[in-house]
Design goal:
Layout (H helix, E strand, L loop, with lengths): L1 E3 L34 H10 L1 H21 L4 E12 L5 H12 L9 H11 L5 H7 E4 L6 E8 L2 H23 L7 E8 L12 H26 L6 H8 L3 E5 L7 H21 L7 E6 L8 H9 L5 E5 L17 H6 L4 H4 L1 E3 L4 E4 L10 H16 L4 E7 L7 H5 L4 E7 L5 H13 L6 E5 L13
Parallel strand pairs: 6-13, 7-11, 7-12, 8-10, 8-11, 12-13
Antiparallel strand pairs: 1-9, 2-4, 2-5, 3-4, 9-10
Helix pairs in contact: 2-7, 4-6, 9-10
Length: about 475
């Protein structure tokens, strides 16, 4: 139920300006500025943009796993030959020295085309010359008479067969080359260690590849998070907001869309806590003129909840909408007349202000579309308008935005003793808040604090009297 409120006819002409509040300026560079980031900025990015980092790390591990799974596994197997020299006319020391000198040249025989062809023929299975050549290697461990033959293949059994076959063919080649005169010198190459099928692959190395994918994903995720934070510095945490713009967060309120008792109580408690924090911020005194300056149209700040919280304290408030594009829709209970018509002299304040008996509170809309008022006229008549409302109401709450019509936020701030800047979590940027602070600084007015709308869990700190 609504009814018209009777207001005094006389309009005081006093336009005495309220005391100038302390001006708050940016405490540290915004993320969008091209300045070097500090260590605390990196930690802030990790805390607020961890989802990007997690997704990039998960993608890096998934890609690494996929690529590793598509790679052909490679197994390695090794066989060893023991070289023994027998010469009736030489001492044991001479024979050992001869073996050490000669054994160093034997690994080169593994690349002999004739040897490779013979190995391919003995292995069979359609394996070709180039495959055998690329799979076989040989080496002589330093200061030994051993020749190791290593084979690589996609199958562990094939790798072992290749190594054993190649070692046998190499032993025959060595004996054929060295045993020209068996009565003087005899060289024996014996397969001392046979190759066995390996259990693990040498390539790809799954653990290493997954670790590299994780590191690459984390690095890319951090760079992506920093990039996103630079181009889209939205408010994500109340503590970060306090540090960056040096404004106390008086509270975090939510606009509940659920029609439940629990949701309504949670919403109401948030606004009651906000009023308590405003009282503490003003040394226990309730401001008579409160400006709620929204950072954007999607702030979703509920002025009626503020009025309801004040009503629970025995205070009667009037809610004045100063932005024509952000006001309650006109209904049968709300007339067309508003602030615009009252300032232009086309309507009487008595008929423009309506009372909500159930709260109780007064509502004054911004008005309808009409030729814009001159800023001079608005500034000249705003103080008498507020004073007239104060004659009936304990608190005047003006909700508007910067560069709004008919009431610009910076102009209204000159006539208020409490300025609450509202911003929406994950929507409003630090740059927008900076613009609002600068607009207030231009008229030598400082904001009382910041009110965030959105997730209650990210709310501002609870104030206490000390």
């Amino acid at each position: 139920m609504t009814k018209n409120v009777e207001l005094p006819i006389a309009i005081p002409v006093s336009t005495q300006q309220k005391p100038v509040r302390e001006i708050y300026r940016m405490h540290s560079p915004l993320p969008t500025e091209t300045q070097a980031m500090e260590l605390s900025d990196y930690f802030r990015v990790i805390r607020t943009r961890w989802v990007w980092i997690f997704l990039a790390a998960a993608i890096g591990v998934a890609l690494s796993f996929g690529i590793t799974s598509m790679m052909t596994p490679v197994y390695k197997s090794k066989a060893s030959l023991f070289i023994q020299v027998d010469s009736p006319g030489d001492t044991s020391y001479a024979r050992s020295q001869f073996a050490l000198q000669r054994v160093g040249s034997y690994p080169q025989l593994i690349g002999d085309p004739a040897l490779i062809t013979q190995v391919a023929r003995e292995i069979g299975g359609g394996i070709d010359f180039q495959t055998v050549k690329a799979s076989l290697t040989a080496a002589n461990p330093s200061e030994t008479v051993l020749v190791s033959v290593t084979a690589e293949a996609a199958d562990p059994r094939q790798a072992a067969d290749l190594a054993n076959t190649a070692a046998g063919v190499l032993a025959s080649s060595i004996e054929k080359l060295e045993n020209v005169n068996p009565k003087v010198l005899t060289v024996t190459a014996e397969l001392s260690v046979r190759a066995t099928p390996p259990v693990d692959t040498i390539s790809p190395r799954k653990s290493l590849n997954l670790a590299l994918g994780l590191v690459a994903g984390l690095s890319l995720g951090l760079l992506l998070a920093i990039f996103v934070d630079r181009i889209d510095p939205r408010i994500l945490r109340a503590k970060d907001t306090e540090r960056i713009i040096k404004l106390p967060v008086l509270g975090t309120v939510s606009k509940e869309h659920r029609r439940t008792d629990r949701g309504s109580r949670s919403k109401a408690n948030g606004y009651r806590q906000l009023i308590s924090n405003v009282l503490l911020a003003n040394d226990g005194h309730l401001p008579q003129r409160i400006l709620v300056l929204s950072a954007n149209d999607e702030t979703e700040f509920d002025g009626e909840q503020i009025a309801s919280a004040l009503a629970s304290m025995g205070k009667k408030a009037v809610l004045v909408y100063g932005d024509r594009h952000d006001q309650p829709a006109r209904s049968a209970a709300l007339v067309d007349a508003g602030v615009t018509e009252v300032l232009a002299g086309d309507a009487n304040l008595n008929t423009a202000v309506l009372i909500r008996d159930e709260i109780p509170m007064g509502v004054l809309r911004a008005g309808t579309e009409r030729p814009a008022l001159r800023n001079f006229d608005v500034v000249a008549q705003l103080e008498p308008l507020i004073t007239e409302l104060e004659a009936v109401y304990d608190v005047v709450i003006i909700m508007t935005t910067t560069n709004a019509e008919p009431l610009d936020g910076a102009a209204v701030a000159l006539h208020c003793d409490c300025v609450l800047v509202t911003a929406k979590m994950r929507k409003t940027t630090y740059g927008k808040l900076n613009e609002i602070v600068e607009d207030l600084s231009a008229v030598r007015v400082g904001a009382t604090g910041l009110v965030l709308t959105g997730n209650r869990s990210a709310g501002g700190r609870r104030w206490s009297i000390r």
